[in-house]
Amino acid sequence: MNPVQQAVVWLNDPLNWTNPGGILDRLGEHLSMSALAVLLGCLVAWPIGLWLGHTGRGGGLVLLVSNVTLAIPTLALLTILPLTFLGFGRPAVVVALAVFAVPPLLANAYTGVRQADPEARDAARGMGLSGGQVLRRVELPLAVPYLAAGFRTAAVQVVATAALASFVNGGGLGQIIRAGFGLDIAAGGGQIIAGGVLVAGLSLLVEGALALVERAVTPRPLRRARRVANRRAADATAGV
Amino acid sequence: MSLHLSYRAAPGNPWFSWQYVRDNSDTILAALREHTWLTARAVLIAALVALPLAVAAYWFRSLAGPILALTGVLYTVPSLALFAFLAPYLGIGAITVLTVVALYALLVIVRNALAGLNQVPPEVREAAEGMGYGRWGRLFRIELPLALPGILTGVRLATVSTVALVTVGVVVGRGGLGQLIFAGFQNNFYKAQIMTGTVLCVLLALVLDLILAGVGRVLTPWLRGRNS
């Protein structure tokens, strides 16, 4: 039997799905830690990004954050954070993943506010709105397409990176792949490929679902801007 | 003397230790060398494959959509999953790591090179055509030099992310400095070893990025003095 056939057999065994530590358990872990990490990333990155965009300062900082995090290996953060005050377990893994969610969220929040039409901003100020009101009522709504694009990029990245949590026994679908590698490659080949299919499938699914969400939360007149935002988001992941 | 003895008695678990670096310089250097070597080969292979792809997508517009869509989908696939797909066929070893990291580097370079080529102003292309340049002459004399900043950005990004990505190679036992980090984690969570591996990783990325930035300055003398 070649590895692909083995993988099909492995995926067709119901016990591999329902056992403790089976696919369903791992999927739950994967999704819950990804969701927490993205939430944490949003709570940190959005306020900072919006504020920096509003004041027009800190463009260099945004760029620096995305460049530095690009150079830090995920494995390093996953192994270092449990040894700090965070301690072993879920919080350390979530924080490590959140660090990698920050750059796209931050960059898109910043660009989203910066690209708001200066005339709209001037008009709002002329109507007597204060700085905070301009941010809340004018710049924030106009930045929504960018925020959504950043959210999508960050979420996909976190779901993909969460597979690496298995290196420190942090759970998630990556655990299935690691267990397969733990067996002999001839015996575990099927399980390794099956795990790969699950991890990759989940990432693509999240990407597709969030693309629909992104479309839904973008008001129709801003759909054209959304396409630009998508391109910007791709650049942001690439770190440009 | 007593100070020395007490240090010996309770070595603790410091974040950094010269003692560790001195005692294990061979292992550390071997890991660093493997990491650098893997990164260099991966980026070189990726660049050699990516440039013709980018040019093909630039010349034949109908190819651009599929190539960008394919790279987009591949970029979404997590690195561990790619290792999982390739390891049963390529085996446990450096070749698997090399293939995976080269694939990701490829995606980054193709996208940036294509963006660079698309930024060549149409007037310039028409002028070149009017001067009698053929398709290849125009490519090598006009379009590729003008796209060089974009291409170099792609190569730099690919290099930095490849340095970080090679560490995932521990899953097949060939992660370069990642091997050091992972071993430190498994050997009673030895912080000094983890930190040494991490710092070297980040430094390697920084040094390679600076070298490439320098190469870029030398290759594009006409951009000097304008902006960085």
Automatic annotation (TrEMBL), chain A:
* Record's signal peptide: none
Transmembrane ranges, per UniProt, are: 31-53, 60-86, 92-111, 146-168, 188-213
Cellular-component GO terms for this entry: plasma membrane
Its membrane topology is listed as:
Multi-pass membrane protein
Enumerate the subcellular locations listed in this protein's record, separating them with semicolons. Answer: Cell membrane; Membrane
ABC transmembrane type-1 domain location is 27-210
Origin superkingdom? Bacteria
Q: Which InterPro entries match?
A: ABC_transp_perm/SBD, MetI-like, MetI-like_sf
Q: List the GO biological process terms.
A: glycine betaine transport; transmembrane transport
Q: Which UniProt keywords apply?
A: Membrane, Transmembrane, Transmembrane helix, Transport
Spell out the family assignment given in the record's similarity comment: Belongs to the binding-protein-dependent transport system permease family.
Q: Which PANTHER family match?
A: GLYCINE BETAINE/L-PROLINE TRANSPORT SYSTEM PERMEASE PROTEIN PROW, POSSIBLE OSMOPROTECTANT (GLYCINE BETAINE_CARNITINE_CHOLINE_L-PROLINE) TRANSPORT INTEGRAL MEMBRANE PROTEIN ABC TRANSPORTER PROZ
Can you name this protein?
Answer: Osmoprotectant transport system permease protein
UniProtKB/TrEMBL annotation, chain B:
What the entry lists under Pfam families is as follows: BPD_transp_1
Its domain of life reads Bacteria
- List residues traversing the bilayer: 42-60, 67-86, 92-110, 192-219
Subcellular location, record wording: Cell membrane; Membrane
Keyword field contains Membrane: yes
GO BP annotations of the record are: glycine betaine transport; transmembrane transport
Name the UniProt key words of this record, in alphabetical order.
Answer: Membrane, Transmembrane, Transmembrane helix, Transport
Primary localisation category? membrane
Spell out the InterPro entries in the cross-references. Answer: ABC_transp_perm/SBD, MetI-like, MetI-like_sf
Has keyword Membrane?
A: yes
| ABC transmembrane type-1 domain boundaries | 32-212
GO cellular component, alphabetical, reads: plasma membrane
How is the protein disposed in the membrane?
Answer: Multi-pass membrane protein
Give the family from UniProt: Belongs to the binding-protein-dependent transport system permease family.
Protein name (database record): Osmoprotectant transport system permease protein
